Structures are given as C-alpha cells and as structure tokens.
Here is the input.
Amino acid sequence: MADVQNNEQQRLDFVRQIVADDIKTGKWDGRVITRFPPEPNGYLHIGHAKSICLNFGIAAEFGGKCNLRFDDTNPVKEEHEYVESIKADVRWLGWDWDDRLYFGSDYFEQMYAYAVDLIKKGKAYVCDLTADETRQYRGTLTEQGKNSPYRDRSIDENLDLFERMRAGEFPDGSKTLKAKIDMSHPNINMRDPVMYRILHASHHRTGDNWCLYPMYDWAHGIEDSLERVTHSVCTLEFENHRPLYDWFLDELGVYHPQQIEFARLNLTGTVMSKRKLLRLVQEKHVSGWDDPRMPTICGLRRRGYSPESIRNFAKVIGVNKFNSTIDMALLEHCLREDLNRTSPRRMVVLDPIKVVITNYPAGQTEYIDAINNPEDQSAGVRKVPFSGELYIEREDFMEEPVKKFFRLAPGREVRLRYAYFMTCTDIVKDSNGNITQLHCTYDPATKGGDSPDGRKVKATLHWVSAAHAVDTEVRMYENLLTKDNPDETEEGQDFTANLNLDSLKVLPNCKAEPSLAEAEPLDRFQFERMGYFCTDLAGTKEKLIFNRTVGLKDTWAKIQQKEQK
Ligand code: ATP
Ligand code: MG
Here is the structure.
C-alpha cells in the first residue's frame, strides 16, 4: 500500500506535489484556489493552454477551484474582443470558472486604499523622476542604485500628492508612486519599484474613472490576496519578482498566497508571444487570429485540433522548472492519437482524375458498405455509392511506373477500397498529351474488395463516384515559419524573415463522397490515406471547405526511434 502511494506521489509534478503536501499539512485549511490570469491584449495560444490545464487541472484534481481573472490593469492595450475570445477558448478547452469571473480593474479602489496604507506606514512615496531618470537611478546588475531626491518626502506631502495624482492634476509621466524598499538591493525589482503611473487613458471597464494605473507587480499580489488564492502559479520570468510579491503582501499584512513558478511552453517552428502573433495578423501574413496556421487556441480549433488532444499534450509535457523547447511533432502526435480514435473515415480525392469502368453496367449505381472507424466498432458503417465513372487520385496512377510504385498503371490491377478489383486498360490524352481519363475494367467477382481465387493486388485506392461527388476545396498547411527557432535571423532581420511562403496551398477541385455534404463546421474526419481534415468554420452553406489538420504519418515516433539508436 505504501509503495502504491509512493508511486502515486512520484507521478505528481512539483507544483502538484506542493499542493498535495499543503493539503496534508493543512497549510491552507485544506483549501485549493488557483487562478488563470490572462491579460486581455491578444488571443490565447498553446502556451496559455499549458497554464490553463495546470491551474484548472489542479483545482479539479484536488477538489479546489480555479478563477478566471482578467489582468486588465493596463488601459491602452485591452479590448472587449479579447475578453470574449479568452472566455470562449477556456470553455472550449473544457474548463469552467462557474461564477468566479474576475477583473483586476474591479479591485482598483481597494488597491488605491492599500497604497494609501503603505504611504502612511512610510513605505511608499510620490516621485517626480521621469521614466528615463528612474531607469538611471535604478542602477544595473553590477552597480547599485541611487536614492531618488523625492524619497524623503513627508507622509503628509505624499498623501496629498497621491490624492491629487488620482484627481487628475498632473500630466502623464510626471509622477509615480514608488515602494520605498532598498536602492542597493541585489534584486533590481526591489529597488523602489513603481507602483502607480499616471495615464490619462480610458479603460474598457472603468472608463475615465481613473488616470492612475497600478503596475503589474503591485496589482497581481493584491488580486491573488483578495481572491484568497492559495497557489499563485506563474511562469519562470516571475521568479525574480517573487520577493516583491512577498514584500507587498507582508507590508500590507494581508492574506498571502504562495507564488510558484514553472517553465513556460516553447514549441518548435512557431512564435508564441502575443506581440508577434499580433504582427502576423496586422501585417496580413495570416487571415486572422484564427487562421489554421496560428498557434492560437482558436487557430488550432479551426485547424481541427480537439480539446482532448491539447489537454493530453499538456499532461504529456508535464510541468517543471527548466525552460526548453518542445518539438511540434509531439503536439501532432497527441493530436493523431485522439483523432485516430475518434474521427470518422471518409473518401475524398484531392487531385482527381476520371476513371471510366468500361464493363460496368451503364447507368447503374450500387451502394457499398464502408466502415466508419476501424478503431471504434460502435461507429458502424455507411453506404457509399459506386458507379461506372469514378475519380481517383492522380498520383495513384503512373503511365510508366517506376520501381516500387505499386499502384495503378497500364495493365495493372488494384483494389478500390471496399468495392472491387480494377485493371487499367487504356489511357485517354488531350492534344497536349495530358492524361484526361483512364479506362479500366472491374471484376464483379471481387465485390467487397476480396478476390475469391486468392489473387493478390499490391495497392488499395480510395475513390469517389463521379456522378455523386460533392465538389469541395481543401486547404493544405505547413508550418508558418521555416526554422525550428524562428527568431534565429540574419543581422537586422526579425522572425518574419523566416516566414514560410508556401505554408498554405489551396486545392480547389477536390471530390468528396456525398455523405460529406452534411458535414457541420469544425467536424473532424480522416480522409482515407490523405490525413485528418476538419470542415472549415466558414461552413458548408455556399461551399464545402476542409482544412487539413495533420498528415497520417507520425513523425514523433520516428524522432523517438532515431533518439533511441
Ligand atoms: P505573451 O508572452 O504571449 O504575451 P503573457 O505571459 O504576457 O504572454 P498573459 O496573458 O499575461 O500573457 O498570460 C496569462 C497566463 O498564461 C500567465 O500566468 C502566464 O504565465 C501564462 N503563459 C503565458 N505564456 C505561456 C507559455 N508559453 N507557457 C506557459 N504559460 C504561459
Ligand atoms: Mg503578461
């Protein structure tokens, strides 16, 4: 029993271990409250998904709660559109904050009152240094800082000035409120950090009520404290800010959560900072935030990712304290594992060539049973129409087959999936010598795709009956960026120099089996032999469009094999 328990514990990542230990020792009276605190200045990306799955996952596993809190303390960059998209993305990933939706801006009044408390304690002062001067006074890693000439203002003067800052008496940038800590502190964040700056800007929620806005380090700990968060989980860049987080809460003498840092997710072949994603959108390198090539949650969704696959990816990569870059192939591996289990199989010809079966009864159509998902018996079978004129994939035929090409060629027999054996007898060409049609014969005795005499064929092709085919457009995607690390550029260039100009290829004339006419936006399928595809958001009303999610071949397995050698 003890062993089993130990094993259980070994499987916990270090954050979950802390939570488990705290529950055991009763540190927070058994409570677990986490939060996901996005800044509403862009759309969420796969990196955020890691944080979402960690915070909501911990709450779910330990009987706790996770708040969704918008860190909207910066007025200029935040927009309503982002708030709505973030809510939709968290829900789509499968998490729920119930009635615990919070906004940092809702705490502005309380934060202000706390700042007044610090001033009264002599722990904060109004400073007239400009931003540049503040930077100079701060010093560097090797050089200690200097005290601001305004550091010793009296408490009364500070209270008066701070109130007038709030009242709007001073222009932007003319004054700040600073914490009075230690200008020679080895941690630069502790050298009298700015708590408030003046900014005459409208805020998406508080309008023009404030011209005084709190800095992140000041605001964040208070938000956590007011929400009685137990474990405030953030990424490693904030490790150096933890002493300040602790200082503020200790000086205020308020409820004090524990900040825990973990390594952020980096993925090969993509960029993840919101600033860079915004550039891709604004400079029209992509069609929008939800372009299927974007690493945003809405982009992945439109590409055909399932929430399960993303949650499983988060589980597989785990949580630790060392920054590293995860291979995109691993994300795709998690995706394929899920799609293989769940997606219905369909036949779609992406680059069609017409086949006429010369010995098939003219005008006849028969309906053939096709298995919906060999991985899932319960998905059953569907009827697919078969007739004397079909489309097959152009690349499945070679007039002069090269070595190791086992598919259709003159005189050669292949299997049509679920249907019949078929032999190519003739090639029809146009005046330029391009092949326009193939003439074939079929063997009625091979119905269902089996030969009664044990005759073997080396290839099975997918096909679509020409008269019943649904026209569709298919969009094929490659990585948006060519390098594993897109920030690796020549002098004077930035990541956009590494954009893959062939990342989108549109196939306008594809032929789909008729059942796909009923596909709903964002339905996921495996097109036999061609990969996983997803109906585009634009829907199916005027035109059926599919996005290719991912190919069938699992490159992750290959990478693993190589590494084991
Ligand atoms: P960006 O660098 O994309 O601008 P950010 O950290 O400024 O991201 P926030 O909106 O502040 O974005 O992030 C909300 C939460 O998501 C934070 O707790 C942050 O630590 C976490 N987060 C952001 N990016 C990643 C990532 N790549 N991996 C894991 N967690 C992340
Ligand atoms: Mg941020």
